[in-house]
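Translate sequence into structure tokens.
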Amino acid sequence: MIENSYQNMFKLPDLKRKIFITLALLFVYRIGIHVPTPGVNGAALSSFFASVDGTLFSMFNMFSGGALERFSIFALGIMPYISASIILELMTVVVPHLAQLKKEGEAGRKKKTQYTRYGTVVLSIIQGFGISVGLESMTSPAGVAIVPHPGWGFRLVTIITLTAGTAFIMWLGEQITERGIGNGISLIIFAGIVANMPLAMGNTFRLVSTGEMSVFMIIILIVMMVAVVSAIIYMEMAQRRIPVHYAKRVVGRKMYGGQTSHLPLKINTAGVIPPIFASSIIMFPTTLAQFANLEILQTIAAMFNPGTVWYYLLYVGFIVFFCFFYTAVQFNPEDVAENMKKNGGYIPGIRPGKRTSEYIDKVLTRITVGGAAYVSAVCVLPTFLMDQFNIPFYFGGTALLIVVGVSIDTISQIESHLISGNYEGFLGRGGTKRIKGRS
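Result follows.
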């Protein structure tokens, strides 16, 4: 059963080695979070971050695992790598060379990975320069300069340090993917988010002990957290399966085909990209207002603060837009229909070719509507709880999606190793449905 499954994990030498490598590399990452970048007043920076909660800084700090708040060598986190990957995917639509690489299999994938690495370094240099210049002009709420000795010396050291830190994180992620278990980049983000859980729990108990929050409210909070996590697990595993039949073909004396399969379409094809993009855009005016003391920027920033009607409307609108946009970039019904036709596959009642493409696109559009509504609800609910009921809901919507999604994917990969080693998986036998990893 479940206890035996956990024991069986360490009976497979290969799986045990992968788990230990993953944990060791994540431990190295967490150590690097606490190594500071030279030339910054740490106390003044911490004081500044305490005063800018709810801006773009707080979101970046979450994804960096608290490294930005400490301004460590990993302050940029893995976000430059993710941004480079997204930019490369978007350019695939308009650059024929990148579109061709997508069709070249393993060789094309390696080439795209190389381009992503170059893009990561370039973005890290640009962001490192921007952060260094921005820090030179910033002070703590008490008026203490965050950078005591500004100038090109500080800027160059910061650019080199942050770029090297991001490159090292990128290498760690690739090593986890190749030698460990799970997706390395996702696990690094996962580790950064989960690392602050003890602090969040401590703050919650402190509020209860001081009487600022009742025990009844804690019970409601736990029930809602369980309900939200359950809903995310259900929706992340949900698929719309389109039946596909393959015609019989006679080659020599043998007959091939005649099988029935299905085309799985995920309800949330875009993953966590929509809330990340939406958060970045909607928090941008608030972040600018921290640097420029202009009345118009202050007015716009006030409109976009969490809790206002404009905030919720724009946030949901951007999430829905990016859900459809990124799904269109990631999934091409024409390519799927063409590949299906070449292999002798067809959807019952639908003509192969263009009709099949139109049908798949129609189904994908319908389920994306449901997926966008689900992502919007998950992202807005925590913000609403914090604003309306003064609840210290630590996991925001984007963080919840990442934590649950990465957990499902990692457990799925561990279970695959257990099954291949003739061991019972995490969910046991007896007809229990296996966890399906995220596509």
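Note: The two ends are 27 Å apart (CA to CA).
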